[in-house]
Amino acid sequence: MNKKTSVICSRIKIIVTDVDGVLTDGGIFYSKTGEIMKKFHTRDGMAIELLRNNNIKTIFMSRENSQIVKQRAKKIKPALTFFGILNKEKLLGKICKKFQITNNEIAYVGDDINDLKIMELVGFSATPNDGIEDVKKIAHYVCKRKGGEGVLREVADLILNSKKLKDKNDKA
Questions:
Q1: Is residue 93 within 8 Å of residue 118, measured between CB atoms?
Q2: What total number of domains does the chain contain?
Q3: Rounded Cα–Cα distance for residues 4 and 10 (Å)
Q4: Interstrand relation of 124-127 and 29-30 (parallel, antiparallel or unpaired)
Q5: What is the pLDDT of residues 101-127, one digit of tens each?
Q6: CA nearest neighbour of 69 among 57, 79, 58, 81
Q7: Are 54 and 14 in contact, with CB atoms under 8 Å apart?
Q8: CATH number of the domain encompassing residue 69
Q9: In whole angstroms, what is the distance from residue 68 CA to residue 39 CA?
Q10: CB–CB of 6/166 below 8 Å?
Q11: What residue numbers bound the domain in which 29 lies?
Q12: What does the subunit section of this Swiss-Prot or TrEMBL entry state (predicted)?
């Protein structure tokens, strides 16, 4: 991680993440009865716990209104969840007001065209390695992992490590 990225990440207090294509691989499984299933990575669940233990909140923000995602959120307990959101950037002000922070203290992880606007407004943005090219062009960080393979954990580790470096430098 370069010094500029480390400084930006050390300011982050909230990570907002898209779900499909970030926490999942974007694929959908259908059973014979029409039941829909998605695969999540356990490391992303641990990422939320690690972030919570370090006073960094996680927020799910999805265009979809999926019962499966609601079940996953119920298990791993992000600070907030927003479903059925068409204009994600419009929620940014509400999040800042609720938590008394600025856009620069928010990280956003997204992978597709509907994430572009919010990614341009936050302090730090990241995308899975298989995010679309337009998103990769504006993201501060392109993950080594693909969606559904622990992307949130990779971003969480980046942010937590930058905070440790900052704490170490502040004490020196």
A1: no
A2: 1
A3: 10
A4: unpaired
A5: 999 999 999 999 999 999 999 999 999
A6: 81
A7: no
A8: 3.40.50.1000
A9: 10
A10: yes
A11: 3-171
A12: Homotetramer.
